[in-house]
Amino acid sequence: MADMTTHILALETSSHVCGVALLSHSAEGVRLFADQHDATAEHAERLLPMVDHVLAQAGVARNNLAAVAFGQGPGGFTGLRVACGVAQGIAFGLGLPVLPVDSLMAAATQDVVVQSIATDSTPSFDRVRVLVQDARMNEVYLGVYRSEPGQSGWVTEQPPLLVAVSDLPLWLQRFQADFIRHRPGVTLEILGDALAAFPDLSAQLHDVSGIVIGASAVRATASAVAWLGWQHWQHGRSIPPDRAAPLYVRDKIAFTTQERALGQGGNPRAMPLSTIEPMTPDHLEQVALIEQRVQVFPWTRGNFADALRAGYPAWVIQSGGHVQGFYVLMCAPDVAHLLVIATDPDMQRKGLGSRLLAHCIDQTRAHGLASLILEVRPSNTAALAFYHRHGFDRLSVRKGYYPAADGGREDACVLQKTVV
To answer: What CATH number has the domain bearing residue 79?
Structure first.
């Protein structure tokens, strides 16, 4: 009889700890083999020997692997490049897919995974966790993860971003106030080594309603990356090895000589605070401009003005008067319909789209509706993957829904998410 066991190899080097794990899933359950070492400045030389050690310990040959997962980041630049490069090399050599894993989510998941595997039980995701890891230069990496009823694992509420330490308390207070507006009694648990690196943070956050301080020593491990990799594998979220890349978050670590000559000094600031507010006529020029930049067949300023006059729920995310993104919702008697959502191309991959979508889901609940639907072009694979990650399922296809080039028409994939 053929071996029906799925073996996921996992690499995690986002911190000074170098880790390798192998998760083996079969009808008999889950087995986990792991090794780790404090490998400061030694990730490259230690990682492959540790892979051999873990595979030998498990009695699994490389050609029996199903996929390679790796901690994508954020974290130390050198470590992230090592894990990504080794994952790509193994995957290319064996013809395997790759599973990038959010290292902050892995840190949020670590204790849950360890307990579930030790007790042979289903992981219990019953908390909302905010991971704050020291990013040096008086900044922190931040990510927010929550449980979703009926799903096994975390849902990303705020993908990893970079925040100045001085801005973090205000960022958390604003996020917490917005997050719990439709979730009475929900508590945000703050974890991560930034609490130890910046002791004043704990004191500043200690008395904030709805926030509790958790462990400061928590970090991503290869075991958690393996478990999350297995979840990605189950949901078809693997990618070819040539598409694997580290998640640096801090894309710019210093000003150029020319920028310094113009008076800029120190380190580039982290992403400024953004708030979600109702769309007003004053926002329409910026909203229409963003729409024109992201859509081949965009809504016009008049379309947005009509939506406001009709009373459709419409919101923008902005900072300092600059609109960074928006959405418009239509509420029918039995379902909410997301008509349009977009973020400024210059502000993409910073978690703004996920924040807007989470806010839209909250608005759906606030209007007493059980589900949210939207349409996506089948050719827009990035958008389909985005909504899939946020729990949307394909409901149907609308033939010839979208205008296309040369006067043609393109179908629409109708996606739905149950929100109650």
So the answer is: 3.30.420.40
Together in a domain, 209 and 224: no
Examine the pLDDT at 405 and tell me if it is beyond 80: no
Same-domain status, 194 and 229: no
Q: How far is CA 334 from the centre of its chain?
A: 30
Spell 386-404 as b/e; 16+ CB within 10 A means b: ebebbbbeeeeeeeeebee
pLDDT given for residue 264 in this prediction? 47
Task: Please say if the pLDDT value at position 67 is more than 90.
Answer: yes
- HEC string of 136-190? CCCEEEEEEEEECCCCCCEEEEEEEEEEEHHHHHHHHHHHHHHHHHHCCCCCEEE
How much is the pLDDT for 252?
Answer: 54
Which residues touch 245 (CB under 8 Å, ≥6 apart)?
72, 84, 100
Strands of the sheet containing 128-134, edge to edge, are 154-164, 139-147, 128-134, 188-191, 211-213
Question: Sheet of 98-102: strands edge to edge?
Answer: 29-38, 17-26, 6-12, 67-73, 98-102
The single-letter code of the amino acid at 279 is M
User: Cβ distance 31 to 226 under 8 Å?
Assistant: no
pLDDT value, residue 29: 80
The pLDDT, as a whole number, for residue 265 is: 45
CA dist., res. 330 & res. 310, Å (int): 10
Catalytic residues: 375, 387
Contacts of 200 (CB under 8 A, 6+ apart): none
Of 113-127, 180-194, 305-319, 391-405, the least confident: 113-127
The pLDDT, as a whole number, for residue 180 is: 67
Q: Based on the structure, what is the number of domains in the chain?
A: 3
pLDDT of 258 higher than 60: no
Judged against a pLDDT cut of 60, whether residue 119 lies above it is answered with no
- Give one DSSP letter per residue of 339-375, joined into a string: EEEEE-GGGTTSSHHHHHHHHHHHHHHHTT-SEEEEE
Angle, helices 301-309 vs 284-294, to 10°: value is: 130
pLDDT confidence band for 151 (50 / 70 / 90): low
Identify the domain containing residue 286 by its residue range.
Answer: 275-418
| Predicted structure pTM score | 0.68
Q: Are 390 and 354 in contact (CB under 8 A)?
A: yes
Residue 239: its H or E element:
none
CA distance 80 to 74: 8
| Cis, peptide link before residue 123, omega less than 30° from 0 | no
